Amino acid sequence: MKIDIYSLNGKKTGQQADLPAAIFEAPVNNDLMHQAYVRQMANARAGTHSTKTRSEVAGGGRKPWAQKGTGRARQGSTRAAQWVGGGKIHTPKPRDYTQDMPKKMRRAALRSALSAKAASNEILVVDELVLADAKTSAMAKALNTLVGQDSALILLGERSDAEADVVRSARNLPGAKLLDAMYLNVRDLLGYDKVIVPVKALDIIAGYLGTDK
Question: pTM surpassing 0.90?
Answer without folding.
Answer: no
